[in-house]
Amino acid sequence: MWKSNGMEGHRTINYSDIFLNFYHMGDTVCDPRIKEHSLIYVCSGEVVLSEQGKVIRVKEGECAFIRRDHLVRMDKYGSAADGIYQSIVLRFSRSFLMDYYRKCDKSEWPREVKRSKVSVMKIPSRPDVVSLFESIRPYFRTEEKPDAEWLRMKMNEGLYIVLKTASHVYASLFDFSEYWKIDLLGFMEANYMYELSQEELALYTGRSLSSLKRDFKKISDLSPRKWLVRKRLEAAHDRIVNRRGKIKDICADVGFKNLAHFSKAYKSVYGISPTDSYRKGAG
Asked: Which of 73, 133, 205, 222 has the CB geometry, 3.0–4.6 Å to 226, for a possible disulfide?
C-alpha cells in the first residue's frame, strides 16, 4: 500500500487525492511547483511555503490552503526531536471542482469577490479542521483502504473548510466559471519568462487544453508557444538597446535557457545579433 519515491525513509499514499506523507529526513525535501489547489495539515515537523520573497511557516498542528501556482515553493523539514515529517494533503483537482460546481446550490455564493494576489492562506485552528484531519490520520497506521464514499465526504469537508475561511477563494477554486475566469493574456504577460507547457498554461488559468487553444485564438494568430518566444524577444530587445544588464543575464531573465538559441532567434527577428544591438544602443 505504501509507495516510495526512491528516497530513503520516504513513504506516501494516495487515496483519491488525499495524500499521506511520511519522511524520516535530515535534509529539506522541496516541491518546486504546486500544480493543484491543496489543503495541507502538518502532523509532525514543518513546511515552509515561499512565494516571491514572502515566507509562511506551517508547523505541527497547523493547516494552510495553497492555491495552484507555479511560483509557490514548498520546503519540508523533519521535527527537531526525531527528524520526522508527516503531513496530510487534500488536492482539489479540476475534475473534482467542476463536479462540485455542477452539483452545488450557487444561489448564495459571492459574485463580486476577486482572485487574491496571495497564493498561500493559513487556516485558523477550528473544530472542523481538527475533526477532518484527525479522522484521516489513523490511515497512517493501517493497511485498510477507506471506501470511495468516505473519501468523497472528506474531500467535500476539506473544500468546505477552505470556502468557509475566506470568500476570495471562490474566485481561485472555480476559475473555470465565467464569473472568475482568469485573464489568459494577463497571465501570460506576467509569466512569459517561465518555462510553462501548454498543458501547464491551461492548468494555471483554469482551462482545459482545448479551451486554452480556443481562447488563445481570440488573442493572437500565433500559437501560445510562439507568442511566448516573441514576448521574450521583445522584452530582451528593450533591455538590450537600453543597456539594462549583460546580454547573458538578459537572456536568462526573459526565459531563454540557451544563449546560442537566443542569439539565433533574436537575429531572425531584429536582423542583427544581440551584441551588435547592444553596441548600437538606443541612440
From this structure: 222
Stated pTM of the model: 0.82
- Per-residue pLDDT of 148-196, as tens digits, reads 999 999 999 999 999 999 999 999 999 999 889 999 999 999 999 998 9
Count Cβ atoms within 10 A of the Cβ of residue 90 and give its class: 0-12 exposed, 13-18 middle, 19 or more buried: buried
Report the interhelical angle of 127-136 vs 148-165 (nearest 10°): 150
CATH 1.10.10.60: which residues of the chain?
Answer: 182-283
Per 3-state DSSP, the chain is made up of helix, strand and coil in percentages (nearest 5) of 40, 20, 35
Residue type, 76: K
DSSP state, 69?
A: B
**Fold for the domain defined by 10-173:** Jelly Rolls (2.60.120)
CATH class, domain 182-283, is mainly alpha
What is the number of H-type helices and E-type strands within the chain?
11, 10
Distance, in Å, from the CA atom of 171 to the CA atom of 182, rounded to the nearest integer, reads 9
Contact criterion met (CB below 8 Å) for 38 and 92: yes
Residue whose C-alpha is closest to residue 89's, from 54, 139, 127:
139
Pick left, alpha or beta for residue 103 (phi over 0 → left; psi -120 to 50 → alpha; otherwise beta).
alpha
Closest CA relative to residue 169, chosen from 87, 63, 95, 97: 97
Written as nine digits, the cell of 57 is: 511557516
